[in-house]
Amino acid sequence: MLNKNEIFEKVKIIISEESDIDEDDIKMKSSLVSDLEIDSIDIIGIIQTIEIEFDLERIEDKDFYKLLTVENIVKYIEEKIMSH
Q1: Would you please indicate which residues are annotated as catalytic (active-site) residues?
Q2: CA 68 – CA 42 distance, rounded (Å)
Q3: Distance of alpha carbon 24 from the chain centroid
Q4: pLDDT tens for residues 56-83?
Q5: What is the pTM of this model?
């Protein structure tokens, strides 16, 4: 099972690859929109890649809006992995 730091590192890679942002610029407290300036199309791509990479069920629309910071994404993945 992945720990929080391993999840964070994997999420950073996904965000970087989906949005062409340098991994070093992606921090745990980063907001996808205001800090990283990622548009909604790229956010959808990030979420879809996270679903695949972490073998998660489809992320519900109601949860989608909770995932606008790197920290919330990591917490969400952590919770889903723990519940498996």
Answers
A1: 39
A2: 12
A3: 15
A4: 998 888 888 899 999 999 999 999 998 8
A5: 0.93
